[in-house]
Protein 1
Amino acid sequence: MKTTTRVAALLLGGVFWIGPAHAEGIADRLERLESQLGLQVAESTQVAQIAPSLAADFEVRLQRLERAVSELTGRYEESTYQSTQLKDRLERLNADIDFRLQQLEKGGGAGGAVAAAASEKAPEKPAAAPAAGQLGSTKPSEKLPAGPQVAALPANANPDKQYEHAFEQLRNGSYDAAEKEFSTFIAKNKTHSLTGSAQYWLGETYYVRNRFGEAAASFGEVLQKYPKGNKAPDALLKLGLSLASLNKKTEACTALGQMNKMYPDAAPSVKRRSEMERKKLNCG
């Protein structure tokens, strides 16, 4: 037992005792650490001296970027506003012409439709023209009175102006002139974004004059060439109505029955009208 205690004491004494050589090694290591620490402090001081200038440069560049972003945002908002205004204008024009044409389909005549749009009084109903959904409506083209004359189209008018001019002719009830101008527009601008709409409105110029065969052909062109255009659902509806007016009940029912399948997102009014006409025709 005493021997074991002495050995333990000697071992502990050896652990805690540091010889001269070992002490010198520790001193060298401390000097190296102090030297390295001094270099790091010097480098940190240089970084601290450079940092303010870098911060100032970054601040200037950041301000420039913020101004550029602000200018681009302003331009984008202005462009968006202008686009919205144009879209609203076109929708109002479409709504107006659709209203006038619906009056014609009800038998009010072109004069009655123009008068209805120009005043708040209900239009008088002269002798009714054949309703679009009635079978056997195959009267020859009727000469309908035109509205106010539209100013002549400038010779150098661009495609957008050509379309607007033809549309204005249609609005005013100048169906012969509208037919010619829409036909010319389609022939000259086959790839224009408005050509599908022009083809639809060309069909309308035939439809309101009871030229149902030509109307059906024009509406069919819309569905064949521009099936994803804005007026495609309307064209499908009017194709069905035109075929019904030509006593082609089976074909009319087939066309009207495709509405929900081909255009599930069509306007509710178009879907309602399609279903209503199917009931009139007793489609299966």
Protein 2
Amino acid sequence: MKKVFTFIGLVSIAAFFNAQIVINEVYTGGGVLGIAVLTHDFIELKNIGSSTTTLNGATIQYGPATGGFTQYHTLPSITLSPGQTYLIQEGTKGGGVINLINPNLVVGVVVNFDGSPAVGIGLGIGLTSGKVALASNATQVTGPTASNVIDFVGYGLVNQYEGSGAAPSPTILNSITRTSGDTNNNAVDFTITLPSPSSSVLAVNDFNNTAKQSHFIKNTFVKNNEITFGADVKDIKVYNSTGQLVKTASIKEGAVLNVAELQKGNYIVTGTVNNQPISQKILKD
């Protein structure tokens, strides 16, 4: 029996240290009424390795700050090239002003491990504390070194996490984002940032919209009080980092929007290009 458990332990450790697809960003404030900018929580996966990797039969599992994992949902087969991201739209608190752009997966029904009926749509991720696992199957995760764990993030005041400490607490306005690689230490690997949901793995029908988005704003770093647009954009809205609408406009391709009245800082700009909703983050120096 001892040899069996030693072998299982070695398999677990090997998977733990060699994961290429990891949890890259977690946002938990989606839809908080009157405050949140984004309408939904999200979890973003990323291939941080050097080769293309595929997940089959994987799940996203969630647990509160204390106790075990309570819910999960399955993932379709995913193939990510190095650097590619996969955006998962989770639950909402009913508010917010900006929808996620081109999520790869919009989660509907989740499964409760205790067999009770699921309530709501998507995982109900805890705002400031909780734990999220990317698992290789639907078996309930027991901790960060469980044999089916591909990646594990405990954040805030939580009972389980990778390494010496938990990742910091997200807020209504901020997500927790991976700093670079994966040292298997949540306290080191994650930092607080503005949400930056990204979906670089797209269906064929999404490519045109991606091209539009890539030319939506030509200068996302604004130094001379002007934002230059690369397309005709209707219904432009500029939100500050607290979710307040601070400017509106409609712009022709190649035209500029003067934002001299806005203070330095991060903003989210939304608009409509060819009847497609577009969103992009800018920084005004």
